[in-house]
UniProtKB/TrEMBL annotation:
Keywords: Secreted, Signal, Virulence. Its main location: secreted. It comes from Phytophthora nicotianae (Potato buckeye rot agent). Residues 1-19 form the signal peptide. It comes from the Eukaryota. InterPro entries: NPP1 (IPR008701). This is Necrosis inducing-like protein NPP1 type. Belongs to the Necrosis inducing protein (NPP1) family. It holds the Pfam family NPP1.
Amino acid sequence: MNFRGLVIIIAATLAAVTARRVDHDKLGPIPQPDPVTISEKAAIKFKPQLNIVDGCVSFPAVNDGGDFSGGLKGSNGNSACDDTPMGSQVYGRAAWYNDKWAIMYAWFFPKGFFMGVASRRYDWSSAVVWIDNPDFATPAILGLSTSTSDDEYQRKSPAPDFGILNGVTPLLYRSISEVAGQPMLDYSSRTGDFQPLIMWEQLTDAARETLNTFDFGDAQVPFNDANFEEKLKKAFHSKLIHLIAY
């Protein structure tokens, strides 16, 4: 093993050792930084509003120090997670995929549900906003994909008119349907709430390390290094190839 490889392993080990499990309601959100890059500006421009219909509201998953949420046992409905006393968070990551610019937004939940019943510790939901080019003067939405389970996405290309406010803000709602199985995100005509956005590259090394290595069980982090590209593959709609503008 070369010296650089050894340093990386030692750094990862130290991060894992120093990261702490924190009560789900004691972990505060990371403030939304001022955007600097074109990618960051586009991510804020197209940030969705989220309306929580039922189940838990979204919570922060990690902090700058790499500390992570302890979550909640999969029992007792939305007890202890119907309000977030320290505020929520939305995580983002963006990249080119099949010549379209994909912006993924992800929300963390301290417990998961199945058929409307609390069933496990931890859950994630995510949405992908597909645009033509973040470098354009007026980039346009081409499509919208929303997670319907741990592994599947509902895909709309072009994006539904009623679900886009003023041409830039996707309106989403999350429901723990007793019929659909796992909680799902869907398009909405109702406004919701914004959460502070932190992009992958804006996170500290410690926070990224936790998101890359901590075991959230079946609730995989959709935007970490191991899962991001595969999630984009599942969220991509073939109709996007031929779309030019929203």
